[in-house]
Amino acid sequence: MAVDSLIFISYKLRYTEAMKVLVVEDHRQLADLTKRALIEDGYVVDVAHDGQVALDMFDINSYDVIVLDLMLPEVDGITVCRTIRKTDLDIPIIMLTARDGLGDKVKGLDSGADDYLVKPFSFDELSARIRALLRRGKKAEATILNVGELELNPATKVITYDGTPLPLTAKEFTLLQYFMRNSGRVIPKSELLEHVWDMNYNGLSNVLETYVRYLRQKIRECGGSADTIETYRNLGYMLKA
User: Which DSSP category does 74 fall into?
Assistant: First the structure.
């Protein structure tokens, strides 16, 4: 418990925690390494391996930042960036490419990218650039989430239930935020494990059930109902909208 508390304190001090990132990279090993590095930095990460899948994911999900490769199958990164900019002028986009020519950099920035990172790059630099864009951009203000009596502020990492602070550990915070972003729909267990932990996470025993139980208990202690998070047998969980 003491270690978990220390993790939570560290978590509250780090701005990047629980922000949602879409990584668009066709090199699967690099995509996996980038995802793991960003998860370690506290982000929730989705991955798309081609441009069309990235656009489809962007249409149905809400992201705080996009890390976008220039050279992609199906739809190239320039087209992806321009398409996104037609509907969202604010979301930070970092363009990744193996090319280091000035012309490619200009094309990337002209298409709507906010920053440009040449491969190979360090994950520390990528994370630093993401933090800089989030601080500078409109997304840094982070829309407050409200579901019923629950209120979550992604910027301050404060969650309340009917005005009462809800003390959560880092993983509980990330899990509840994912529930709140997807309230009103049944979320499969596999999706929760992939987005809150890691797609390669092997602890499929009772880890998710344990954390859902923790959340229910803490909501109940604040005067709420444990049924706020409903179980759908053999399907998953849903946070009531």
Answer: S
Q: What single-letter amino acid sits at 145?
A: L
Question: CA-based angle 226:12:195, to the nearest 5?
Answer: 60
- Report which of 184, 181, 191, 172 is spatially closest to residue 235, judged by C-alpha positions: 191
Q: Is the pTM of this model over 0.70?
A: no
Q: What dihedral angle (degrees, nearest 10) is formed by the CA atoms of 216, 219, 224, 225?
A: 0
Strands 93-97 and 65-69: parallel
Cα atoms in the Cβ-side hemisphere of radius 13 Å centred on 10: 11
Kindly tell me the burial class for residue 165, based on how many C-beta atoms sit within 10 Å of its own C-beta (0-12, 13-18, 19 or more): exposed
Helical residues (DSSP H) of 98-188, grouped into ranges: 102-110, 123-136, 170-181
pLDDT in tens, 19-69: 899 999 999 999 999 999 999 888 899 999 999 999 999 988 889 999 999
With b meaning 16 or more CB within 10 Å and e meaning fewer, what string describes 137-154?
eebbebeebebbbbbbeb
* Residue 151 CB-half CA count within 13 A: 10
**104-135 per-position pLDDT tens digit:** 777 777 888 888 888 888 999 999 889 888 87
* Residue 199 pLDDT greater than 60, yes or no: no
Q: Give the type of residue at 157.
A: K
Confidence of residue 203 (pLDDT cuts 50, 70, 90): low
Count of residues for the chain? 241
